[in-house]
Amino acid sequence: MYLDKIKASLILGAIGDCIGSSYEGMESTDNVDFNKEWLPTDDTQLTLATAEAIIKKKK
Asked: Which residues, in sequence order, are CB contacts of 36 under 8 Å at separation 6+?
C-alpha cells in the first residue's frame, strides 16, 4: 500500500505538471490553449531522476 501511494503521487504530480505547463509564463489575462499537446516539464524529469537515484541507493 505504501508503494501504491508513492506511485500515485508521482503519476498525479506528472499530470499536474503537464496541465500546469500550459499556464507557465502566462499573464493572468492571457487565454490558455487547451488544444495544444500537454508535455511534462523539467520538474517531472528531475522528480523521476531523484526517485530513481533513491531506489538505486537503497539496493
From this structure: 22
pTM: 0.76
**Residue carrying C-alpha cell 516539464:** 41
Q: Over 90: is that where the pLDDT of 6 sits?
A: yes
Res. 47: pLDDT tops 80: yes
The three-point CA angle 38-39-42 to 5° equals: 145
Q: List Cα–Cα distances, 34 to 19, 20, 22, in angstroms.
A: 9, 11, 7
Distances from the Cα of 19 to the Cαs of 9, 10, 29, 48, in angstroms?
A: 15, 14, 18, 17
